[in-house]
Design goal:
The chain has 225 residues and is mainly α. It folds into two domains: 3-146, no CATH class; 173-222, no CATH class. The protein has helices spanning 3-11, 26-36, 39-54, 60-65, 70-89, 95-102, 106-120, 134-172, 175-185, 192-210, 212-222, and strands at 124-127, 130-133. A two-stranded antiparallel sheet has the order 1-2. The longest helix is centred in the last third of the chain and has 39 residues, at 134-172. It is elongated and about 80 Å long. Mean pLDDT is 79; it is low at 12-23 and 150-157.
Length: 225
């Protein structure tokens, strides 16, 4: 499989290096990331793993079944431990991660602690014979995982604000008046009839709502509810 194709599949799961999004088999993609031995992809492993688990696509056994080389299986386990350390470093709590940690042997728990210490101190560490930078790993996670979370949150807040505005307008304006108000707010052109109606009826209500004294009085009254 060409590396460009893998980059496309990884991009669909939150670590886009090519800006291509499409539906992918998360477990196969994670396995191919392990086998790639590509440090860029290994740095993105915690991001893809987190996104895959949030979408309920990740299955540890399924990833493992796609790894046939013992060294790849070993690298997979190390990348899992490294990812757990990244999540702990950023104080992220995933239910599956807690259960996975409990299932680890003491040696693997010690390795996890070593990863976590290196991440917190910005030291380099070794994964499958490859040296990785803790600073680069954390930067990649911040740039891809947290930027996506922030975008999603902003979209939700924006939608909530829009619904709140719609509800408030419906308490003051009739459906037609609300439609004209929103068209004016969005800078859309009104036809002659709409302009006349807006000027004759809607504008008066808008000016009243914009009056500072009325706003202050309304706030005072609302506090007594």
């Amino acid at each position: 499989m060409g590396n460009d194709e893998l980059l496309k599949r990884v991009g669909a799961l939150g670590f886009s290096l090519l800006g291509v999004e499409e539906n992918q088999n998360a477990n196969l993609t994670l396995a191919d990331m392990v086998k790639s031995q590509d440090l860029r992809l290994w740095e993105g492993f915690p991001v893809v793993l987190a996104n895959s688990t949030e979408k309920e696509l990740f299955n540890y056994d399924e990833v493992n079944r796609n790894l046939f080389n013992p060294s790849d299986k070993s690298s997979f386990d190390l990348l899992m431990l490294m990812s757990l350390a990244v999540y702990r470093c950023f104080n992220l709590k995933f239910f599956w991660a807690v259960q996975f940690y409990k299932s680890l042997s003491q040696d693997k728990k010690n390795k996890f602690s070593d990863f976590l210490e290196k991440l917190r101190n910005n030291g380099n560490f070794n994964v499958g014979g490859r040296e990785m930078s803790a600073e680069r790993l954390k930067t990649a996670f911040e740039n891809y995982y947290f930027s996506q979370s922030k975008t999603t949150l902003n979209e939700l807040l924006s939608a909530k604000d829009e619904l709140g505005l719609e509800y408030a307008l419906s308490q003051v304006f009739s459906p037609k008046q609300k439609e004209l108000f929103l068209k004016k707010l969005r800078g859309e052109k009104l036809n002659k009839t709409e302009k006349e109606y807006f000027s004759r009826v809607v504008k008066k209500k808008v000016l009243a709502l914009a009056n500072p004294q009325l706003q202050k009085a309304a706030q005072k009254v609302s506090e007594s509810f």
